[in-house]
Write a structure and sequence with these properties.
With about 190 residues, this protein is an alpha/beta fold. The chain is built from five helices and seven strands; from the N terminus they run αβββαβαβαββα.
Amino acid sequence: MTQSAPPSLWRFAPLAVALGLAVVFFAGLFLGDPSRLPSAYEGKNLPAFSLPGLGQGDGFSSADLAQGRPVLMNIWASWCGPCRDEHPALMQLAAQGVPIFGLNYKDNPAAAQRFLGRLGNPYVAIGADTNGRVALDLGVYGVPETFVLDGQGRVVYRHVGPLDARALETKILPFFTPPFSPLFIPPNS
């Protein structure tokens, strides 16, 4: 009689690796805030840029984002479904006096103007980034994305995805509520 070798544990290695990867991927789905994606510019000024306006409107530049008060910069497009979903939140912010600059990303200007004509325009200025170069320089992954900038034009928060009521209340509005806001710079007396 021949004696067979004892079963080797190595035959279970592929199963162990597969289970380990499944645990890692499953944990990744539920850990952390998917809308909180750090910006390479957090705590820093954005790179210098200047964008033309959308149609007859004025565009804006990075210098416009550093005027002594906190501002939002929202990256959006008319072809973006989640941008349509977040638009009421932006209109609410604008009605509360939050200055919002819109960066229109890789969009047809006529389509963007129709979008704003139907849903309202929450922006103090809109820059047309028709080739997407400025958004790429900012590290934008997609639309919508929103940056909170302090009075000196430094990024203090980046929100990836559509804004909703919870994000407004817990993540955005605290930056715009004086005197508790860390971004509030009182006017010179």
